[in-house]
Amino acid sequence: MSDREQQRLDEDVRREKNWKRWGPYLAERQWGTVREDYSEDGECWTYFPHDHARSRAYRWGEDGLFGITDRECRLCFALALWNGRDPILKERLFGLTGPEGNHGEDVKEYYFYLDATPTSSYLKGLYKYPQAEFPYARLVEENRRRGRHEPEFEVLDTGVFDGGRYFDVQVEYAKAAPDDVLIRITISNRGPEAASLHLLPTLWFRNTWAWGRTGEGYWPKPRIARASDGGVGAEHASLGAFRLVADGKPEWLFTDNETNAVRLFGAAEGPAFAKDGFHAHVVDGRADAVNRDGVGTKAAALYRLDVPAGESAVVKLRLVAEADAPAAPFGREFGTVFTNRIAEADEFYASRIPAGLTDAERAVSRQGYAGLLWSRQFYYFSVRDWLDGDPAQPPPPAARRTGRNSEWQHLYNRDVVSMPDKWEYPWYAAWDLAFHMLPFARVDTEFAKEQLVLFSREWYMHPNGQLPAYEFAFGDVNPPVHAWAAWRLYKIAAKRGERDRVFLSRLFQKLCLNFTWWVNRKDAEGNNLFGGGFLGLDNVGVFDRSKPLPTGGHLEQADGTAWMGFYCTTMMSMALELARTNPACGDMASKFFEHFIAIADAMNNLGGSGLWCDDDGFYYDQLHLGGGHIVPLRVRSMVGIIPLLACGLLEYDLLDMVPGFTKRMEWFLENRPDLHGQVACAVRGERHRLLAIPTRERLVRVLHYVLDENEFLGPYGIRSLSRVHHDRPYVFGVDGHEYRVDYEPGESTSGLFGGNSNWRGPIWFPINYLLIEALERYHHFYGDDLRVECPTGSGRLMNLLEVAQELSRRLTTLFVPGPDGRRPFHGDDPRFSDDPHWRDLVCFHEYFHGDTGRGCGASHQTGWTALVLRCLEDVARSRTR
After folding, report:
1. What is the DSSP annotation of 465-500?
2. 177 φ, ψ to 5°?
3. How many CB atoms sit inside 10 A of residue 229's CB?
4. pLDDT recorded at residue 193
5. CB count, 10 Å around CB of 677?
6. Given phi > 0 = left and psi -120 to 50 = alpha, else beta, which region is 50?
7. Which of 149, 167, 166, 154 lies closest to 95 in space, CA to CA?
8. CA-CA distance, 280 to 291, in Å (whole number)?
9. Which of 637, 852, 871, 849 is nearest to 764 (CA)?
10. SS3 of 697, please?
11. Among residues 34, 36, 25, 32, which one has the least CA distance to residue 46?
């Protein structure tokens, strides 16, 4: 067979066929987001809670259960379910808001992404729906009762899945053509008795007409109406005419995607048919809640299914452009399309998942790619319109004018974007997205390029050069990894013979602006030692590094400074590559080279030893209190490991092609004695130079801690805080107040950042992966001459490539069943190791317990945790060496 999925990707890139028009671009949570918050206090979770979601029309997007939509989120399709017992029609996933959860936001459902292709030619997902009443109130009450030192209370803990009394709801999508989507829903009763289910496959239009605005993105009110063939027709001014047909004889229900102001706000009157009409009809038994005339902006096919114990029921639907609607939508072709798309998906991944993996590892990889592809989402946010409010709605409070994101009025996002997690993080995070693009490069390089370029465009990047961070605070500071992602993406494609210098040049130019923003804003004293706030590491520090310090003064951060060194080496590499065909870029390469040397010098030598502590053999943040009083904050954390990442190689073959840069570099190294011997940071080898912050001796000393199982090295990767702080917490006193850093291997016991993020001990994939890559670069320079104990104290010597491979192996074992069938990330529930309906299901959590490997934080962050796919490739390569 030919690689048909790759052909579809190529046709889409060439704009011959619009294969990506439809995809899983629907959010899993739109309520409780900043965009939907028009409150005075900015408490988005309380302004638009889950209880409002079924009744209030969204302003900026839509959400649904395993849904799809077009790339502009005009027409949406998703599932709705009712087991006959729930107080709420299940139209979306439920979870706790930040204030409700004892560890912050948390989705309280079991759902899994099983398969996906980049063009969404095939998608498969699974939702587990209890047959007993869903325990909404109990989940809220018990988690509210529990403190931060107690575990989260999960749905499995309530007992509603005991005895297998639940439905497996599997949804599959297969495209017969770009505008012809076949839908197959399989309901399996896993319980011991027959059970009934109401299934409502639902089609609706996003509300773009109720806000009093016109222009781009605002269209006249569309229409869904009963069609003569027993289906429904949907007409939209921009999208055109589509038809949804349903197999069998369901009851069609119609309402409007309009806010139920009577229920929510006690209004005297509201729309005749509101967004929650299907809930009112099915759950409350109100026949008048739906439009019997068969017209509206929201429609559902109601199936009442009785499923015997251990058996399944299958429902088929088809969403197709009116002009392409077939005469027999559910004939033999329907099954053939699914068979072909599944086979084509298998073929696509057969050439992209390394052959050296076991069957279990390949299955993990396949589900990882599925999660990555399902997590693309239409993201719409115009900050100016949000601040101004809408003409047809009450004006927002005046405080918004100077509040959240008020300095980002240029920002206008209306794109499909890779999300960290479509429930807990249904908004992009710039540094998360950079990591997403590496696994994306394996399956959809063009999408990865487009995403990186998008964030540098004028309607994303601030005029001052800053990249937007995330919607809670676009002006917050994320680690500068965008350049690294672009460079890595370029090199991955170059290995296939695709040197896209236009892509590289576009990003290089914009990133020069971003680099300048960093230099101007985050080097407080102009001495090449940088701050930057929490820099994505949330509560890793002694203080909240994003707020004024309780001591006064300022921090010089080992990670902030190292990130800038890392940024320099990456930008220098990009400039040298561009200088192959554009000699002017050699001047920029010199600029970044010299800036790197200055940063390395400051970090290692300023004031005697910079941020290096020779007594400990580690890099620390320094607290400047004024009057020359400096206090090193001697916390052994990931902050002191990040300086190892700032290393790059200069190949002599390349240097010969850019003589201007080479001449300037050699002059600089020979004529700047003021750099205190930092020529050691540009070590000459036989074939290349190494640029690095740590000298060889300091690298070895830091690795002594990194590879010590009593410090950073855990059974499943590198911890974000040394385990030494379990018995020796770091304590800092200020005016009678004590600030502590303890080793916390799982969820945070602190309320910082909502309490749902913790860098005081768990394992995080992004920094682990960057460290693996850095070790590979060090090995490329030092070779087998540099060997270290791994683990420290074991007597087992490894070169740094072998150390990198060992770290990759440890990270991948989080997801692979051990001899007892248990996958560490699942924790101790025996269902995940023994039950055939649970044991092969994989989630990719935000981070992992530093000792046990249990998954923590967001449960579907197949964003940066998808880096395990790259680690699996490393494992496969190590087996062939």
Report:
1. SPPP--TT-TTS-----HHHHHHHHHHHHHTTT---
2. -160, 170
3. 12
4. 98
5. 11
6. alpha
7. 154
8. 12
9. 849
10. helix
11. 32
Question: 618-641, pLDDT tens digit by residue?
Answer: 999 999 887 778 899 999 999 999
pLDDT at 680: 56
SS3 726: helix
For residue 728, how many other CB atoms are within 10 A of its CB? 11
Distance CA 323, CA 181 (A): 14
Pairing of strands 195-199, 81-82: antiparallel
**Residue linked to tokens 């073959």:** 653
- Which tokens belong to 324? 């392409």
Between 765-782 and 696-706, two packed helices, what is the crossing angle to 10 degrees? 140
Q: What secondary structure, in 3-state letters, does 132-188 show?
A: CCCCHHHHHHHHHHCCCCCCCCCHHHHCCCHHHCEEEEEEEEEEEECCEEEEEEEEE
Q: What is the pLDDT of residues 77-87, one digit of tens each?
A: 999 999 999 99
Distances in Å between the Cα of 716 and the Cα atoms of 744, 762, 806, 856, 868 are 16, 10, 10, 14, 12
Cα torsion 712, 861, 769, 457: sign:
negative
Q: What is the pTM of this model?
A: 0.96
Q: Find, among 90, 89, 105, the residue nearest to 32 by Cα.
A: 105
Predicted local distance difference test score (pLDDT) of residue 677: 56
* Distance from C-alpha of 312 to C-alpha of 187, rounded to nearest angstrom: 5
For the purposes of burial, counting CB atoms within 10 Å of the CB of 178, is it exposed (0-12), middle (13-18) or buried (19 or more)?
buried
pLDDT digits (tens, 9 = 90+) for 863-872: 999 999 999 9
Cβ contact 204:224 at 8 Å: yes
Q: Which residues contact 495 (CB under 8 A, 6 or more apart)?
A: none
Count CB-CB contacts under 10 A for residue 195.
20
Phi, psi of 777 (to 5 degrees): -70, -45
pLDDT of residue 1: 44
Question: CA 296 to CA 290: how far, in whole Å?
Answer: 9
Write down the residue that tokens 């399996």 correspond to. 188
pLDDT of residue 750: 81
- Round to whole Å and give the CA distance between 230 and 247: 9
**CA terminus-to-terminus distance, the chain:** 30
- Name 673's Cβ contacts closer than 8 Å, sequence gap at least 6: none
> What is d(CA 599, CA 622) in angstroms, rounded to the nearest whole number?
15
Residues of the chain with pLDDT under 70: 1, 675-680, 754
- Asked if 659 contacts 706 with a C-beta cutoff of 8 angstroms, the reply is no
Quote the CA–CA distance of 645 and 774 in Å, as a whole number: 5
CA dihedral 670, 676, 681, 685 (to 10 degrees): 50
Q: CB count, 10 Å around CB of 355?
A: 10
User: What does the pLDDT look like over 209-226, one tens digit per residue?
Assistant: 999 999 888 999 999 999
Output the CA–CA distances (angstroms, integers) from residue 860 to 8, 114, 463, in the order listed.
27, 12, 33
Q: Which helix (H) or strand (E) holds 661?
A: helix 659-671
In angstroms, the CA 150 to CA 143 distance is 9
Q: What tokens does 340 get?
A: 């072909």
**DSSP assignment of 505-539:** HHHHHHHHHHHHHHHHHH-TTSSS----TTTT-GG
Q: How far is CA 133 from CA 90, 91, 164, 186, 276, in A?
A: 11, 15, 14, 21, 20
CB 758 within 8 A of CB 847: yes
Sequence-separated (6 or more) residues with CB below 8 Å from residue 226: 232, 233, 252, 254, 294, 295
Tell me the three state secondary structure of residue 877.
helix
Q: ∠ CA(36), CA(42), CA(48), 5° rounding?
A: 40
- For the chain, the maximum distance between any two Cα atoms, rounded to a whole number of angstroms, is 86
> Look-up: residue for tokens 């300037």?
664
